[in-house]
Amino acid sequence: MRTQSVVTVVQVSAAMHKEIDRKQNTEVASLGEFPPEYLIKHPLQNTWTLWYYEPDRTKTWEESQREITSFDTAEDFWSLYNHIKTASELRQGCDYSMFKQGIRPMWEDDQNKCGGRWLINLDKKQRTTDLDNFWLEILLCMIGEAFNEYSDDVCGAVVNVRPKGDKLGVWTSNADCADSVMEIGRKLKERLRITSKTTMGYQVHKDTMVKAGSQTKNTYTL
């Protein structure tokens, strides 16, 4: 399936899912009421897994990461997304992560350890204006394979809800592949409509793991 067709399917299935939800919420609907195309599930190129992190002092960080569910169709993505809390509704200190199946949302995973992340820092005011839109757009970019020939290099994404400001990160598998990292970053900045006045930085996981202070130096910037 071509990249553009996957993106289109994700967008079209969103409209279909809204229509099905509307009918189900207003009346008892039978399958015969829906056009055939509304009942067909559209497969994604990859299976994706949603993770949820909630801090718990009785558990390690890894133990607090909960694998929620996996999906491999556009319709199942929307069914999941429409029935969970949005990122802005999460309690402070909590995370959502969405990664390709088999990849854990941690630096040490074999698919992540040589990579890094494009990091977007939001101020507190942006939680109500930008956070949910940015997070959804990132998810659609990933499951819709919007990064063209570099989509295979995308591992997943994380949203951190924090008191001082929220963070969004898109993780890639190889920090040394500059062409891939930069193209993914450019596409991300374009889709999120981040202006040229705002700098977006790419941090290598190995640097983040050994950082001495609270800041990690950006290896790439856009």
Automatic annotation (TrEMBL):
Gene Ontology biological process: regulation of translation
GO molecular function, one term: translation initiation factor activity
Keyword list, A-Z: Initiation factor, Protein biosynthesis, RNA-binding, Translation regulation
Domain of life of the organism encoding this protein: Eukaryota
Cellular component per GO, a single term: eukaryotic translation initiation factor 4F complex
Pfam family, any one: IF4E
Similarity field: Belongs to the eukaryotic initiation factor 4E family.
Annotated protein name in UniProt: eIF-4F 25 kDa subunit
